[in-house]
């Protein structure tokens, strides 16, 4: 989501009367409208915003910020919020968060030899960007038969539409390629990561994707895919088609509703963890008729 889409989603939230509280005392969460994108001094920006909120609004102090929501469109925004002592207990909607260990993928890697030459797979696997997945695929598969691994392509949209399996690697967090893969009906291949894919509480990713492929197996992807039964691909493509609206924002989809529910579930867990009373029904944020299907993690195929 770009900063402009964030602005639009905030407007939608503010126009959605059922999700608004009439007074601060009745609110389950407080949205901090700190618009940010990829920029210098991002952590300092969030620190400044937090100090402003804590100074001018008493509701921050009452919960230590635990019932405040930050919505970050910056690639590393989740990491920055998680590194700040003052904000790490808040609720964050972000591309990428690693439970107070986010620094593990932001360190400078040890290098040896000449940078222009090949590097070891272990070295690539420690890369910050993409957790090394793009680098490993480029190193081993850019010349493999049946694969198209390029820096850029003039037929980009057709490439996605024509492929049966599409690599959907992390950038800093699961990025736009995962969405493109779903929309194209191309089964996404997600390498193993400690970061869960979008809406994993409600979407049966195991039935929609090649999920959790070990990084050590990436050089052997041609053999792995050759053994994949045709029926498996067909069923995963059907599941993608069935659930695609969940990943689209209105008016075509329901990602806004599911996002509100995910935020609600997270806030409920934090509230109960600190002994606070919770009186809101998170499932009521979903459109009528969708609660049961989204709770079911088993994909049974189309009839």
Quick tags:
9% strand; Exostosin GT47 domain-containing protein; 2 domains; single chain; 8 strands; three-stranded parallel β-sheet; 39% helix; mainly alpha; glycosyltransferase activity; 303 residues; Exostosin
Report on this model:
It is a single chain. By secondary structure, the chain is mostly helical. The protein folds into two domains: 3-104 and 253-295, no CATH class; 116-247, no CATH class. The chain is 39% helix and 9% strand. The chain contains 13 helices and eight strands.
Summarize the structure.
The chain has helices at residues 3-15, 42-56, 58-63, 77-83, 121-125, 133-141, 156-162, 176-184, 205-208, 221-226, 230-243, 255-273, 291-295, and strands at 30-32, 68-71, 91-93, 165-167, 170-171, 173-174, 187-191, 210-213. The chain has 303 residues and is mainly alpha-helical.
Please specify the SSE layout and strand pairing:
Layout: H1 3-15, E1 30-32, H2 42-56, H3 58-63, E2 68-71, H4 77-83, E3 91-93, H5 121-125, H6 133-141, H7 156-162, E4 165-167, E5 170-171, E6 173-174, H8 176-184, E7 187-191, H9 205-208, E8 210-213, H10 221-226, H11 230-243, H12 255-273, H13 291-295
Gyration radius, to the nearest Å? 21 Å
Major sheet attributes: 3 strands, parallel
- The counted number of beta strands is 8
Strand order of the largest sheet: 1-2-3
Which oligomeric form is depicted? single chain
How many angstroms does the end-to-end distance come to?
A: 34 Å
Low-confidence segments, ≥5 residues, pLDDT <50?
100-121
Order of helices and strands: HEHHEHEHHHEEEHEHEHHHH
Number of helical stretches of at least 4 residues: 13
Strand content: 5-15%
* Count of the separate structural domains: 2
Query: Pairing-aware structural class of the strands and helices?
Result: mainly alpha
**Overall morphology:** globular
Mean pLDDT: 80
In percent, how helical is the residue content? Answer: 25-40%
